[in-house]
Amino acid sequence: xxxxxxxxxxxxxxxxxxxxxxxxxxxxxxxxxxxxxxxxxxxxxxxxxxxxxxxxxxxxxxxxxxxxxxxxxxxxxxxxxxxxxxxxxxxxxxxxxxxxxxxxxxxxxxxxxxxxxxxxxxxxxxxxxxxxxxxxxxxxxxxxxxxxxxxxxxxxxxxxxxxxxxxxxxxxxxxxx
Length: 177
Known about the structure:
Elements: H1 2-58, H2 68-71, H3 74-87, E1 91-98, E2 109-113, H4 118-129, E3 135-141, E4 144-145, H5 152-159, E5 166-174
Parallel strand pairs: 1-5
Antiparallel strand pairs: 1-2, 3-4, 3-5
């Protein structure tokens, strides 16, 4: 009987030891999981911050070819935009500036319909610039990337300048070769 008690206590001790080892492993796994989640969060945040810096690198506004704001006074720009909106109520006055990395645009002032999407405007500008399909173009409004599936009317209402024009900046980068 003493032998059975000794064996029983050693089995009980082994069970307790195994349970505590499992608890420690579970605790370590949870800690590793939390560390992994924090690592992923930090990596993701760093990549977002790096991409924001990269977007800023594209905005070489000192190198634009045509600067409407510098050439024409604020008062004159306000008069022009007001006259355009009165004469063409279903059109939006847009000024398109391009980077030195792109060919010259034949014109920079556009009257675009209120119901077109930004992707259509991208297409129009790409055709006017007549650039190679290997060159990727980026469109910015107020230093924010312009996405292709929004109506230009929404963009205009949200980002138009105090003078009544919407300023779009286009830059390019070789991406496919």
